[in-house]
Design goal:
Protein name: Xanthine dehydrogenase
Shape: globular
Family: Belongs to the xanthine dehydrogenase family.
Strand content: 15-25%
Keywords: 2Fe-2S, FAD, Flavoprotein, Iron, Iron-sulfur, Metal-binding, Molybdenum, Oxidoreductase
Helix content: 25-40%
GO molecular function: 2 iron, 2 sulfur cluster binding; iron ion binding; molybdopterin cofactor binding; oxidoreductase activity
Largest sheet: 8 strands, mixed
CATH topology of the domain at 86-186 and 243-330: Aldehyde Oxidoreductase, domain 4
CATH class of the domain at 86-186 and 243-330: Alpha Beta
Radius of gyration: 29 Å
Number of strands: 25
Structural class: alpha+beta
Distance between the termini: 34 Å
Organism: Drosophila borborema
Strand order of the largest sheet: 3-7-1-14-11-12-13-22
């Protein structure tokens, strides 16, 4: 109703302006400040610039590291020649798998009847929980607390109840709609964190607490104590390529899977579990993904496991690629968070103590929610030093599809709370928020609330560079003038700093492997444990190998990620893909360089091809594996107090100017400036692409 009134008023202003211009109404009939309320937003012409550190060029040693090299498959992707999972040509006898999904958020299944669907010509089979033992049906990335097919009870809307295998996609989806599912009376449904708190619906072993300093004493001594809360909703991953898998039986006891996943080893492991086979009979391959953002780290199992089961049981190739609506219905989102905080600070705005409760909405199963919560608890203070801290964390169990990893993995949610807190403090002490930020910034040598020393902490430099680059104060003055002159359109400016810890929260995942094969013609085939999701990982790894071997990048090729080349890989996640896999590749290159060193000494004027050829005829192995494990991490307050939680931190500061139409809520981002300190960039073009893409 408010919007209708606003639009009516907007049209009144637009007509009045035309009548004033035509001389029918007096020029001052509508105040000048009101007239711009008639305006609409128009898409502005984009203007942008990218600034990065230039690396001295030395063509002789073929060192591409630090240079803005083009993404290895950019041209194929731009022309549509790049092959994705569902782009693999159809095979003889191939079937398509379609899912039967729950239409209730929480209920018991009383009847499941697929007879009508199976009567259709071309429908080959129906699979449900009846086709697996209870043990086989229980799966999950860490805790086996979810099911391949719902086991007598559904816990969220869109949960997989069964699957139809048929001759083609249209037929399979039509048959899936014919499967009759009857439910008992619906059971109580919990959707939000607030409802979970009300019903005490938490996963076992929560809450967990982390404490530093004397919180009660600090509150007693603080000039101001303020309590508030903030909440953050979910977010859909919306990768361009939805979840997809193709399974091909290679023998009576071998299975090959092509899968759109960030974690091929986990797909391999869980397929082995569901089929009761050893992992060495299953190969999972991923050439490239059409985006992932964390949504394909653990949720790929929803499609891959039923597809693998169908292929294994029917001895035929089986394919499935979710439609967009199915993908959004079945898969989880970024974790919604609720924060309740109490903060103590001085009259000037120096924060001395914070007591904060973090509630994350996990959905119906645990997935990776415990780890997301831990990262949020470790990032709630963002860039601000708080000497006395008590942070509590709850994983809420609700009737939503299981929420999962999403770019930042709890870090952005934690930092969201920090930015609320710093603005509350600035408002209460009546000071400029930028001054309060700077006063509370960590400095090099400070310790976090999880006992990690910040050895080099460049946030002040990023802050000052961003203020200068964005012309913050000039824009601020212009915004003040604009808002004074326009009643129904307002502009605002905001600055946000970030501190993000680089490492997997789970210790054993901080490892990577690689395999390098040099062929007799001098060409190099490289395999590593990371997955190319479009982020440019393969390009960076090729650059690392080219530097280590001293050869041009044109001689190096990465075909795909496969579990039969590099075993027991970690997921491509947590922003450590190029760190871990790049180091594993360098380790393999060092072994090869050691073997080639005597030949290079004997033929100092030789070319790479001549050295390789000589090594081949001298029967020297031209294949090597590499391995890397991140050192000195794995902090635990009792068992490992001297280790670091994160290998290092990246920092950034961004300034954005926005304009909103106060009548309709329509809005537009007018300008953004971002300064990121990411150390020495391996490839500035790709890193800037990632920063802009993330923004």
């Amino acid at each position: 109703r408010a919007l209708v009134v606003s639009l009516f008023f907007k049209s009144y202003l637009a007509i009045s302006r035309k009548l004033c211009d035509a001389g029918i109404m007096p020029p001052d009939a509508v105040p000048q400040k009101d007239l711009s309320g008639a305006d609409k937003f128009h898409t502005a012409t984009m203007r942008s610039s990218q600034l990065f550190e230039r690396v001295a060029s030395n063509q002789a040693n073929h060192d591409p590291v630090g240079k803005p090299k083009v993404h290895a498959s950019a041209l194929k992707q731009a022309t549509g020649e790049a092959i994705y999972t569902d782009g693999i040509p159809r095979m003889d006898g191939e079937l398509y798998l379609a899912f039967v999904l729950s239409t209730k958020a929480h209920a018991k299944i009383t009847k499941l009847d697929a007879s009508e669907a199976l009567a259709l010509e071309g429908v080959e089979a129906f699979f449900s929980a009846q086709d697996l033992t209870e043990h086989q049906n229980e799966v999950g990335p860490v805790f086996h607390d979810e099911y391949v097919f719902a086991n007598g009870e559904v816990h969220c809307y869109g949960q997989v109840i069964g699957a139809i295998a048929a001759a083609n996609q249209t037929l399979a989806q039509r048959a899936a709609r014919l499967v009759r599912v009857e439910y008992s009376e619906p059971q109580p449904v919990i959707v939000t964190s607030e409802q979970a708190i009300e019903h005490k619906s938490y996963f076992p072993n929560y809450p967990r607490f982390l404490t530093k300093g004397d919180v009660e004493k600090a509150f007693a001594e603080a000039d101001h104590v303020y309590e508030s809360s903030c909440r953050m909703g979910g977010q859909e991953h919306f990768y361009l390529e939805t979840h997809a898998a193709v399974a091909v039986p290679r023998d009576s006891d071998e299975l090959e899977l092509f899968c759109s996943t960030q974690h091929p080893s986990e797909i391999q492991k869980l397929v082995a579990h569901v089929l009761s086979m050893p992992s060495n009979r299953i190969v999972c391959r991923a050439k490239r993904l059409g985006g992932g953002f964390g949504g394909k780290e653990s949720r790929g199992i929803m499609v891959a496991l039923p597809v693998a089961l169908a292929a294994y049981r029917l001895h035929r190739p089986v394919r499935c690629m979710l439609d967009r609506d199915e993908d959004m219905l079945m898969t989880g989102t970024r974790h919604p968070f609720l924060f309740k905080y109490k903060v103590g600070f001085s009259k000037k705005g120096m924060i001395s103590v914070c007591d904060i409760e973090c509630y994350n909405n996990a959905g119906w199963s645990m997935d990776l929610s415990f780890s997301v919560l831990e990262r949020a608890m470790y990032h709630f203070e963002n860039c601000y030093r708080i000497p006395n801290v008590r942070v509590g964390g709850w994983v809420c169990k609700t009737n939503l599809p299981s929420n999962t990893a999403f770019r930042g993995f709890g870090g952005p949610q934690g930092m969201f709370a920090a930015e609320h807190i710093i603005r509350d403090v600035a408002r209460i002490v009546d000071r400029n928020v930028l001054d309060v930020m700077q006063m509370n910034f960590y400095k090099s040598g400070d310790y976090t609330h999880y006992n990690q020393k910040l050895e080099r902490f460049p946030i002040q430099r990023c802050f000052e560079d961003c203020l200068m680059q964005s012309q913050y104060y000039a824009k601020h003055a212009e915004i003040t003038r604009f808002n004074w002159e326009h009643r129904w359109r307002n502009r605002g400016i905001a600055l946000v700093p970030t501190k993000y810890g680089i490492a997997f929260g789970v210790m054993h995942l901080n490892q990577a492997g690689a395999l390098i094969n040099i062929y007799a013609d001098g060409s190099v085939l490289l395999s590593h444990g990371g997955v190319e999701i479009g982020q440019g990982l393969n390009t960076k790894v090729i650059q690392c190998a080219a530097r280590a071997l001293g050869i041009p990048i044109e001689l190096i090729h990465i075909s795909e990620t496969a579990t039969d080349k590099v075993p027991n890989t970690s997921p491509t996640a947590a922003n450590v893909g190029s760190d871990l896999n790049g180091m594993a590749v360098i380790n393999a290159c060092e072994k090869l360089n050691k073997r080639l060193a005597p030949i290079k000494e004997a033929l100092p004027e030789g070319t790479w091809q001549e050295w390789v050829n000589k090594a081949y005829f001298d029967r020297i192995s031209l294949s090597a594996t590499g391995f890397y494990a991140t050192p000195e991490i794995g902090y635990h307050p009792e068992t490992n107090p001297n280790a670091r939680t994160y290998n290092y931190f990246t920092n950034g500061v961004a300034v954005s100017v926005v304009e909103i139409d106060c009548l309709t809520g329509d809005h537009q981002v007018l300008s953004t400036d971002i300064v990121m300190d990411i150390g020495s960039s391996i490839n500035p073009a790709i890193d800037i692409g990632q920063i802009e893409g993330a923004f």
